Amino acid sequence: MSNCIMCMEKPKEYINLLDERICRECERKITGLSIDDIEYEYYSMMIKKIWSKYLVKYNESY
Fold first, then answer.
1. Helix (H) or strand (E) holding 17
2. Which of 6, 19, 23, 25 is the most exposed place for a label (fewest CB within 10 A)?
3. 25 to each of 11, 15, 46, 54, how far by Cα in Å?
4. What pTM did the predictor assign?
């Protein structure tokens, strides 16, 4: 099983976002953030990274 893309822990439960795993704890943190939170930039950057990786993989398959 692969690790959570956000915290690198091995999740017991997770969601799948564009072929990447996000543990329930990180999901809870992300959904509870406001743009003023100090962690907002980190999670925003990580989600952009997930999108970029997915788009590259998608484009390579065509």
1. strand 14-17
2. 19
3. 9, 10, 15, 23
4. 0.81
